[in-house]
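Thread: Augurin, structure

OP (GT): Posting the sequence first so everyone is looking at the same thing. Length is 71 residues per the record. Can we get the structure tokens written out before standup tomorrow? I want them in the notebook alongside the other entries.
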Amino acid sequence: MSFGDFISAPAPAKTEVSVKENTAKEFLSSLKRQKRQLWDRTQPDVQQWYQQFLYLGFDEAVSTSLASVQI
């Protein structure tokens, strides 16, 4: 069987939408999510987790140096 032997499917019918494409694109482009570092220590939830990790013996300096070691 060669590539030309495949039967092509008919193109799907165009779906009716209630919002024009330009309006939808404008709306979607206006949405911006605030980016922040995962370990942004100004956030209370991060401070809580960080303190818990320290309590459990987690040391950020050691873990980052271990992560850079090639195995």
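GT: Both are above now. Quick notes for whoever picks this up: The mean pLDDT is 76. Residues 40-71 form one domain.
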